[in-house]
Write a structure and sequence with these properties.
about 750 residues, ten-stranded antiparallel beta sheet, eight-stranded parallel barrel, about 30% strand, glycosidase, hydrolase, Alpga-gal_N_sf
């Protein structure tokens, strides 16, 4: 203990303050300060343990901890609020780190050794992460060491003061002579005091993703996870902790998001002393990650945002942070072309003639980007249905006798309505998957994820390529590059239509995701002008990891406008609307036969960064065909505000038949409101729509009643909408600052 006290004494002699006091290290008391958040922890001078002190609204001082009677079985570490807890040394709660050592034991005692504060934020090797320059972010690195096992760790805390956001990750280095294995790895771990908290998360399944769920944090574990190899539709790697009284606009909210595309685990554990441990990281069923002597393990990053302005305030911080410091694609801050996707219009019934004809119909409506979806490839196994050809990325010579180049040139020769702009072309791929009936599988059955002699299960008639293998990574990079080099392709929709099943080792999922990041990093760097859109049977992989590389993601295969309101607003809890892909599809809708007006469908879809059509224009009614040009024009007008503006959820579809949303432009000069009536009722009357984000003293003209009122009037009194006596009505209202 004397040696450790000497280490602490040396640290006490140096006080570091950088980044406009974003991080201060007063000896071994550490304070991270944002515009409206403080995060405090310290080193216990007796033990070397890192102790949590505060995460929330701004504070100035360290205060003595809560007293817990140290009687019974649980004394010592069990009654401390710990920053990086292990297991096996008197703390029975779940650990953030669990390591298997060469001699078979799993006890690890990582204690404080030193720290440093750096301007900016170091990259995480091979992983997506937030980024920023010296004026945006500062980073505290705390070095820990276990003298018994010769294992060291570095905890990284990066604070973005403007967004009240803290990004955390850690690395573990094996300094010994035998292999160790990472059995549990929580990128973000902290212990809250004895306070009442609720958890908000999103759950669902294919076609009804991102349904908001709220539940009380009670004694024991409140947890959810994905074991599908990816985030999946069932849960998303996001949750929020809120005070029971927190609303959309007021109260405390702590949001947590893992920058990771693979299996994950999120837990809030309330112990007998009332403390609540938060853990967010890899799913321990998919770890056992070997680290050889001299090598290091790097955890994914987890981001937490604190808000004293309710859940909506938390969401807006995530949106701004991710648009400016996570999504690196050059299209992130650009308006997106209006597109038409061929799938709903033609399905697999395609050839060059029918596709060019569909693109010609899209041209008449003002579509700017024509997307050729599934079905265009396969020679030995032509892709005539979803059991054939996946993995054989050669254009079907029966459909495209001269390859993609001449066909794409035909589409490019079309001219966008009322302009001289050529129509752009996009293509669908699913390069991580393979069909049993494919040339690729016949040649390389060993490339598929499998577990020895166990049966290889099929989902959607396909199997998963093991992207953890370097040869598979190179195959995908070369294949997609060949496609993009063969024609003037400006957009790629990258799909993924199943999860992982058989794994030969628990860490295969982890290795797969690292391989996937290598592939995508390579391709997006090689083709920076291509607009990349992620898809996983809809929103199965809508996550911050892929958002780092791709600026947008298909939100759900369900394009019913009423269902989409719930899905899109659930997605907006953490991800910006600018990153969502949303389309108008035909009515009645193919999922539920619901018949919703073209105006309502358009207003729902244009709330997203990527707006488009998912239909055959030849099947439009006379009214729909006549209305779509004005919807397209309105969508183009709205898109700049969706891309860069502030987003507000004014009323939720789960709570009201009159949901509403609002965007405020970046400069505050204009705002657009989307209001909906999902179900007509004689009584009660629809409530006024109370706006947000306006200057209370400024005056704004609105085109609903052509009135001019102060921002305070709009926000505190609201505006009343006269609805028709019918279900599924919508209004788009513009406000202009005078």
């Amino acid at each position: 203990m004397g040696a450790f006290r000497a280490v602490v004494l040396a640290a006490l002699l140096a006080t570091v303050s950088v980044g406009q006091d974003a991080i201060s290290a007063d000896g071994t008391n550490f304070t991270l300060t944002g515009d409206n958040v403080s995060y405090l922890f310290h080193v216990d001078t007796e033990s070397g343990e890192l102790i949590s002190d505060h995460f929330g609204a701004p504070v100035d001082d360290f205060t003595p901890p809560a007293f817990v009677l140290p009687w019974g079985w649980h004394d010592n570490l069990a009654n401390l609020r710990r920053e990086f807890p292990d297991v096996g040394r008197s703390d029975p709660r779940l650990p953030a780190i669990h390591i298997g050592h060469p001699d078979g034991d799993t006890v690890t005692a990582l204690l404080y050794k030193s720290h440093q504060v750096v301007q900016g934020k170091p990259e995480l090797p091979g992983l997506p992460a937030t980024y920023g320059n010296d004026s945006d972010v500062s980073t505290l690195q705390v070095h820990l060491y276990d003298n018994v096992s010769d294992v060291s760790a570095v905890l990284s805390y990066s604070i973005f003061p403007k967004y009240n956001a803290i990004a955390r990750s850690f690395s573990v280095t094996n300094n010994g002579t035998g292999d160790i294995s990472i059995e549990r790895a929580a990128s973000f771990s902290t212990d809250f005091p004895n306070v009442d908290l609720d958890m908000i998360e999103v759950q669902g399944d294919w076609s009804h993703e991102f349904n908001r769920v709220k539940r009380k944090i009670d004694y024991g574990e409140t947890t959810f996870r994905s074991t599908e190899g990816f985030g999946s539709h069932l849960h998303n790697p996001f949750f929020a902790l809120v005070s029971p009284s927190t609303t959309e606009t007021s109260g405390e909210a702590w949001g947590f998001n893992l920058v990771w595309t693979g299996s994950f685990e999120a837990t809030a554990e309330k112990f007998s002393n009332g403390f609540v441990r938060v853990l967010f990281g890899l799913n321990s069923l998919h770890t056992s990650i070997k680290v050889k002597p001299g090598e290091s393990f790097q955890s994914p990053e987890a981001v937490s945002v604190y808000s004293a302005e309710g859940v909506n305030g938390m969401s807006r911080s995530f949106h701004d942070l991710y648009r400016n410091h996570l999504s690196r694609g050059k299209q992130t801050h650009k308006t997106r072309p209006i597109l038409l996707n061929s799938w709903e219009g033609l399905g697999f019934d395609i050839n060059q003639t029918s596709l060019v004809r569909l693109a010609g119909e899209a041209e008449k409506l003002g579509v700017e980007l024509f997307v050729n979806d599934d079905g265009w490839f396969g020679v030995e196994y032509p892709r005539q249905n979803d059991s054939l050809g996946l993995g054989d990325w050669t254009p079907n010579p029966q459909y495209f006798p001269d390859g993609l180049g001449p066909y794409v040139a035909q589409v490019n020769n079309l001219t966008v309505l009322d302009s001289s702009q050529p129509m752009q072309f996009g293509i669908w791929v699913e390069p991580e998957m393979v069909d049993l009936n494919s040339t690729l599988y016949n040649e390389h059955p060993e490339w598929v994820l499998h577990a020895g002699k166990h049966a290889r299960t099929l989902t959607r008639n396909q199997m998963v390529l093991n992207v953890g293998l370097p040869e598979v990574q190179d195959f995908i990079i070369n294949t997609v590059s060949d496609i993009l080099d063969s024609a003037n392709i400006q957009y790629v929709k990258w799909d993924n239509n199943r999860g992982m099943h058989e794994l030969s080792h628990p860490s295969d999922s982890y290795k797969y995701i690292l391989g996937l990041y290598r592939v995508i990093d390579n391709l997006t760097t090689r083709y920076p002008d291509v607009l990349w859109e992620g898809c996983a049977s809809g929103g199965g992989r809508f996550d911050a990891g892929l958002l780092h590389y791709w600026p947008q993601h298909w939100t759900s295969d369900n394009t019913d406008a009423s269902d989409r309101l719930t899905i899109q607003l659930g997605t907006s809890l953490v991800y910006p609307p600018s990153a969502m892909g949303c389309h108008i599809s035909k009515a009645p809708n193919g999922f539920n036969q619901r018949n919703i007006s073209i105006e309502f469908r358009g207003h729902v879809a244009m709330q997203c960064g990527s707006f488009g059509l998912e239909l055959n224009p030849e099947e439009l009614s006379e009214h729909e065909a006549a209305t779509i040009p004005s919807i397209m024009a309105e969508a183009k007008k709205v898109n700049p505000i969706v891309i860069s503006g502030e987003f507000y959820r004014l009323a939720l579809p789960d709570n009201s038949p009159w949901p509403a949303t609002q965007f405020v432009s970046e400069d505050g000069s204009e705002s657009v409101v989307f209001a909906f009536q999902q179900k007509y009722t004689v009584k009660p009357a629809a409530p006024a729509v109370k706006l947000q984000g306006l200057d209370p003293k400024a005056r704004y003209f609105n085109d609903l009643d052509n009135g001019t009122y102060t921002g305070a009037t709009y926000m505190n009194g609201g505006i009343n909408i006269k609805w028709d006596r019918a279900d599924y009505q919508s209004k788009l209202i513009w406000l202009k600052k005078q």
